[in-house]
Amino acid sequence: MREILSRLLATGGRLRSAVSRDESDGDQLATDGGATVKTTRRDSLRNSLPVEWELIESAPFWLPPVLFAGFFVYGAIAWNFLLSLTDYSGLGGAQYENLDFSMYTRMLNDGAFWQAAQNTVVLLVVFTVLCLALGLFVAILIDQQIRFENTFRTIYLLPMSLSFVVTATMWAWVYNARNGVLNQFFRLFNLEGAIVGLLRPAGVNAEVIQWLSWNTTALAAVIFALIWQFSGYAMVVFLAGLRAIPTEHYEAARVDGASTVRMYARVIIPQLRASAVSASVVLMVFALKAFDFIYALRGSQPGSNMDILATMMYRVAFDSTQWAYGSAVAIVLFALALLVIGPYLYSEYRRGEL
Amino acid sequence: MSISDGNFIDKLRSTENSRIGLYALLLAGIVFYLFPVETAVMTMFKTESAFARTLPFAPPGADGFTLDALATAWNTLRPGLVNSLLMAIPATIMSALLGSLTAYGLTTISWRGQVGVVVLIIAGIFIPYQAVLVPLSQFWFRVLPGLLEGFINTVFGLITGGNWQYPSRNGYVQLLQLSVTHAAYGIPICTLLFRSYYQSISDEMIEAARLDGASAFSIYRNIILPLSLPMFAVTLIYQFTQVYNDLLFALVLVNEPGSQVATQRLAALTGGVVQSFNTTMAGAIVAALPTLLVYIVFGEQFAKGVAGE
Questions:
Q1: Which of B61, B81, B149, B261 is the most exposed place for a label (fewest CB within 10 A)?
Q2: Which residue in chain A is spatially nearest to B306 when comparing CA positions?
């Protein structure tokens, strides 16, 4: 089998080399206008093909993987949209006859949907902004020609190598009301009572802070843990951006007598726009995917104070087998993701960065 | 820029004291990023009474030390670890290899309109997987089995007697389905990683090889592939971590208890009614071990993968 393959490939190589030799002959013949001769010959050869030769030549490399991934990504999204138009639920197969938008109208009248949508947007915005801010700050600290730079960077990025399930397990312990490290810390400074008084929701009777179940703190607790996990990512992206700024810019600002804070605010940080944009796109997408974290923390019924569209979709579809309704929620989630990445990809395309 | 400027980063830069301030902040960063891991490690060696009595970040002490929690967690998670590796390693290799081939076809060989394909691939990195979950379960548990059963029972009907059934409930089949799924969804990010790398390779060598009559395949095999080896390290490290860490696809595609992956088993351990934090912390550390080891050994490559370089 292998021999046949290699022989086939060798034949291909010979055919191609015949063509190329022809071209190189052209090169040798021409003295000044060599390039022109070359392109005309190549053009005449390839113009006889219905599409570019390079397209045909490269297709065996990219087409099979693109079809494979495309089936799972875009095929599945299209299928998901179709499913969202049905009334499919329960254990049987889907019926594709009566397609309508009834699942979407049902969603608009569903309080749980609006609550989850609101939590999703809050999570998305607050998490992304704070992650960027912390990541930028840490990146600037690391960029001060410090010793053991690699060690610091490695440690700051470590949470990102962990699974959401692992970090959720650890944070469940950190936030534990009775013995968790956070409450123990506040107890150490006799602050627990004050915080309970400040954050305890109306009608709740508790002496300890229940970070994960109080309406006032549950989403914030999730956001904080996610910032812990992903600010290292923002740091890496900003650090690369900082390193790309020529040192002359720092020196010029210094010669002008700008203070360090002013130098960063006026000269350096504005140049990190591209880093900030690409980091925030990735972070927002992570926020949309925070399902694993919340599921590991609270299961598929995290309660309305922590429910996001991703958890709601899973619960509706896979716990309650309301497949069509789950698909409709998923389409909203997909549309949110498109809102984030669409403009980004478009601007990258316009700038020729793709 | 004297100390009297009164702004603290200035101080950080200019004097000895400020360097100390800088390092104090950096050390505070270490405390911030490591304390949940540290409390987990301390707690997993504690007895039930010790983790309620001692501070979470303090060592267990002689009377509160036990390896029971670790043993329980290890026994619960071990089958999951094996399944995770069985599933993640082939998926990672597939994604990296196909990503490299795709990037080669879409970067080193250039043709009009390829940017359209590139846009579709990059967008594929960012889609929320919820948007494919229901079709995914439909495909693996309903459509594919139906098609295969129909095909095999028609073509080999004499052998199967027309009642061959797709082994949907076989644990290894479920792991294979999960692995193939991860391989497919890993292609976009792997393609992006290889593509940005291939864009930086100089064209001269490839042009020279072309003029010598090398085929597209032999250019890939003899020039691009050897040059890609560092990038394969980055991609394999990054993608392995992503696949191993995932829970969502496993929840949907693996329902045989024997073939659950590590993250599923840990989630079950954490979500249990009785919260024995020493056991759950031990579980978290055990489940994190493969990616932690990879990260500690190949931190540089992981950082590159994260930064999309």
A1: B61
A2: A233
Is B133 in Cβ contact with A317 (below 8 Å)? yes
Task: Please check whether residue B72 lies inside any domain of the structure.
Answer: no
Confidence label for A321 from pLDDT (cuts 50, 70 and 90): very high
Residues from chain A contacting residue B127 (CB–CB below 8 Å): 73, 77, 334, 337
Q: Residue B8: pLDDT above 80?
A: no
The pLDDT tens digits for B13-63 are 556 777 888 999 999 999 999 999 999 999 999 998 888 888 888 888 888
Of B103, B212, B295, the CB nearest to A161: B295
Do B197 and B175 lie in one domain? The reply is yes
With cut-offs at 50, 70 and 90, classify the pLDDT of residue A47. low
Question: Does B48 contact A at CB distance below 8 Å?
Answer: no
Choose among A12, A23, A299: nearest Cβ to B215.
Answer: A12
Q: Which residue has the higher pLDDT, B260 or A25?
A: B260
Q: Which of residues 58-97 of B touch A (CB under 8 A)?
A: none
Identify the CA nearest to A180 among candidates A228, A204, A212: A212
CB A210 within 8 A of CB A281: no
One-letter identity of residue B251? L
Task: Identify the domain containing residue B31 by its residue range.
Answer: 1-66
CA distance A58 to A228: 43
Residue whose entry in the numeric block shows the structure tokens 């971590």: B241
In the three-class reduction of DSSP (H, G, I as helix; E, B as strand; rest coil), residue B54 is classed as coil
Q: Is any Cβ of chain A less than 8 angstroms from the Cβ of B55?
A: yes
Give, for A155, the enclosing helix (H) or strand (E): helix A149-157
Output the six-digit token pair for B276: 């024995």
Residue A272: per-residue pLDDT: 92
- Residue contact B134–A317, C-beta within 8 A: yes
Within 8 A of A330 by CB-CB distance, chain B residues are 128, 130-134
Q: How big, in percent rounded to 5, are the helix, strand and coil portions of chain A?
A: 75, 0, 25
Does residue B148 sit in the same domain as residue B9?
no
- Long-range Cβ contact pairs of B274-278 (< 8 A, separation 24 or more): B275/A172, B275/A176, B276/B48, B276/B69, B277/A173, B277/A176, B277/A179, B277/B43, B277/B51, B278/B43, B278/B44, B278/B45, B278/B46, B278/B47, B278/B48, B278/B51, B278/B66, B278/B69
Question: Predicted ipTM?
Answer: 0.90
Which CATH number characterizes residue B97's domain? 1.10.3720.10
Using a CB–CB cutoff of 8 Å, tell me whether B136 touches chain A. Answer: yes
Q: Quick one: how far is CA B158 from the chain centroid? A: 44
B192 in contact with A, Cβ within 8 Å: no
Per the structure, the count of domains in chain B is: 2
Last residue of one domain, picked from the residues B66, B98, B123: B66
Contacts with B, A 185-214, CB within 8 Å: none
